[in-house]
Automatic annotation (TrEMBL):
The organism of origin for this protein: Sharpea azabuensis
InterPro entries per record: Dehydroquinate_synthase (IPR050071), DHQ_synth_AroB (IPR016037), DHQ_synth_fam (IPR030963), DHQS/DOIS_N (IPR030960), DHQS_C (IPR056179)
Functional summary from the UniProt entry: Catalyzes the conversion of 3-deoxy-D-arabino-heptulosonate 7-phosphate (DAHP) to dehydroquinate (DHQ).
Pathway: Metabolic intermediate biosynthesis; chorismate biosynthesis; chorismate from D-erythrose 4-phosphate and phosphoenolpyruvate: step 2/7
GO terms of biological process kind: amino acid biosynthetic process; aromatic amino acid family biosynthetic process; chorismate biosynthetic process
Swiss-Prot/TrEMBL keywords: Amino-acid biosynthesis, Aromatic amino acid biosynthesis, Cobalt, Cytoplasm, Lyase, Metal-binding, NAD, Nucleotide-binding, Zinc
EC number of the protein: 4.2.3.4
CDD domains found in the cross-reference section: DHQS
Gene: aroB
Catalytic EC class: lyase
Domain 3-dehydroquinate synthase C-terminal positions: 179-319
Cofactor(s) this protein cannot do without: NAD(+); Co(2+); Zn(2+)
GO cellular component: cytoplasm
Stated name of the protein: 3-dehydroquinate synthase
């Protein structure tokens, strides 16, 4: 399956195909004519897929950079060591970086590609469900600060996104569930039909049978939204449903306790509880989201006092003059923006 993100000179293709990793060189040769490539990956993914990818790229001079897995690697102070390794390999402005891994590797390697020598070419090969349905597309790249998620970042478009759903076979169930947090988000904001399908699967095996199509549907929604509002001032804000609270939960626990999809799930529940209480969301919307999250083993509350999240929320990028663009649902499949100060989250006492 092939999708094209139409962004003028920054347009790129997304290919979704089982086994495409082995064919990476064919697709890369179409968009990149240089000699050197640096693969940035993590210490879970590289031992599994690094050899396969490096072998496919045997016509290039390949440098391998492997970081420790997990969100704590997506931090500002890891950057100098990555830049040094690229300099040691004499990677120049005409060379390229490939991100091989989940969203952490994609966001981090993308930020490095955006900033090293003021920018080098970049390809995304996402290997987690979350990265395949969401983070590898759209060009947002970033690192976290202790004060908040993704607070230092850039827009860096890949030349290409190669999605091999076969890599999900080695992904831990925890991170399949985590990715489902973002998949459910897509149903909530843009597709009641997708949401209904997600409600209907009786097992991960059944879901896995349709995984290529589910990835396609999510990426196609993201493509459409990103084409309309690349810089996140309008339509694209919808992709942030659940994230204002979700990011604050991740930050509160220093990025160690709740993974991204889990925290976003809790955030979707709480913001919908508030908007339902205010008569914005159709009655029963919160209950349906809770049931969908529970269906995939995701948490729906975290026991934090909402007042404890106000500080982290104050750093959210959707803050304009202390008014936040909260993404709410009118109903499943239809999102809207509610501008309000951060104190609105106090309308639920506990998250
Ligand atoms: N840029 C965006 O638009 C965007 C969108 C959504 C999320 N994100 C970011 O993505 C990050 C979360 O991404 P994630 O959930 O992929 O986390 P992750 O990159 O930490 O991957 C999750 C875990 O799975 C492992 N893994 C990945 N692929 C594997 C495979 N095929 N087999 C075995 N293990 C594998 C990783 O080593 C890691 O331990 C967060 O930092 C979040 O903020 C960014
Ligand atoms: O691509 C987007 O736009 C999104 O909001 C997708 C989110 O799933 C993702 O977590 C993103 O990184 C959040 O963006 P941020 O601007 O809130 O950092
Ligand atoms: Zn997200």
């Amino acid at each position: 399956m092939d999708l094209k993100v139409n962004l003028g000179k920054d347009s790129y293709h997304i290919y979704i195909e089982q086994g495409i990793l082995k064919q990476a060189h064919r697709y890369i040769a179409e968009v990149y004519h240089g000699k050197k490539i640096a693969i940035i990956s993590d210490d879970n993914v590289f031992p599994l897929y690094g050899k396969e990818l490096s072998e496919s790229l045997k016509d290039y001079e390949v440098t391998q950079i492997v970081i420790p897995h997990g969100e704590l690697s997506k931090r500002f102070d890891i950057l100098p060591s990555l830049y040094s390794q690229l300099l040691e390999a004499h990677l120049t402005r005409s060379d390229m970086i490939i991100a091989l891994g989940g969203g952490v590797v994609g966001d981090l390697a993308g930020f490095v590609a955006a900033t090293y020598l003021r920018g080098v070419k970049f390809v995304q090969i996402p290997t987690s469900l979350l990265a395949q349905v969401d983070s590898s597309v759209g060009g947002k790249v970033a690192v976290d600060l202790p004060e908040g998620k993704n607070l230092v970042g850039a827009f860096k478009h890949p030349l290409l996104v190669l999605i091999d759903p076969l890599t999900l076979k080695s992904l831990d169930d925890h991170f399949i569930r985590d990715g489902m947090g973002e998949v459910i988000k897509y149903g909530c904001i843009k597709s009641a039909r997708l949401f209904e399908i997600l409600e209907s699967y009786q097992s991960f095996e059944a879901l896995y049978q349709d995984i290529d199509d589910i990835i396609y549907q999510c990426v196609d929604i993201k493509r459409d939204v990103v084409e309309k509002d690349l810089f996140d001032f309008g339509d694209r804000l919808a992709l942030n449903f659940g994230h204002t609270i979700g990011h604050a939960i991740e930050q509160y626990y220093h990025y160690e306790h709740y993974s991204h999809g889990e925290a976003v799930g809790v955030g979707m529940v709480d913001i919908t509880r508030i908007s339902e209480q205010r008569g914005i969301s159709a009655p029963g919307t919160t209950k349906r989201i809770i049931e969908a999250l529970e269906h995939y083993g995701l948490p729906t509350h975290c026991g934090l006092k909402s007042k404890d999240l106000l500080e982290a929320i104050s750093h959210d990028k959707k803050n304009i003059d202390n008014t936040f663009a909260f993404v709410v649902l009118n109903k499943i499949g239809e999102s809207a923006i509610l501008r309000h100060d951060a104190k609105m989250i106090l309308e639920v006492e506990e998250m």
